[in-house]
Amino acid sequence: MPDIAFVGLSVLLGIPVGLVVARASVALPKPEITGHVGPYRKLALVLICTGLALWAGMVWPGPKAFLGALLAWQLLMLALLDAEHFWLPRSLTIALIASGIVAAAAMSLQQLSEHLLGAAVGFFLLAALAFLYRRFRGRDGLGGGDAWLLAGGGAWTGWQGLPTILVLGSGAGLIFVALMALRGNPIGRAQPMPFGVGLAIGIWFTWLYGPLDGYSYFS
Hints:
The chain has helices at residues 3-27, 39-59, 64-85, 90-107, 112-137, 146-157, 162-182, 195-209. By secondary structure, the chain is mainly alpha-helical. α3 (64-85) packs antiparallel against α8 (195-209). The longest helix has 26 residues, at 112-137. 39% of the residues are buried.
């Protein structure tokens, strides 16, 4: 099948996926809500899902376009839930880890161990940081889902991608804080921040373009 066909199929799949994301992002945090999801939310998420699939296909044409679209849609759902509800469901982060391992096996069985290690190191890195912060500051500094999300990032990019994910994720968080300050809404020390959104951005760019050191897990 020509590479363009894989990209086209991924983009077309973005339409029903966008509708599912629109509905699930409302129903998951508030299952009691059975009303109609707004048309603007549906349209926006359909456009975002198709656009992300096209982006992945432009960077990695061919069968990898499917993998990129799958990653993007999962990250979009998690970022939405974290941004709107400060919630990273364990079921979705575990699905991200599992799909990353499967994708790694499909790309290269020889490098599968690097992705398994990435998932383990990603989880324990943030879990240990959260534990130490709680121990010495007496309050939570990271959400419980952040470690699982970084584990998913490690599963998709391998352990080599973890530093880049953290750098990009932290950078996105700093930009968010700066924008809030410019708008006259500075974020206080105790105010929660959706760090999962920054991590999702970091995972996406790291998977697409590789770690900052130039390592390629598609070689």
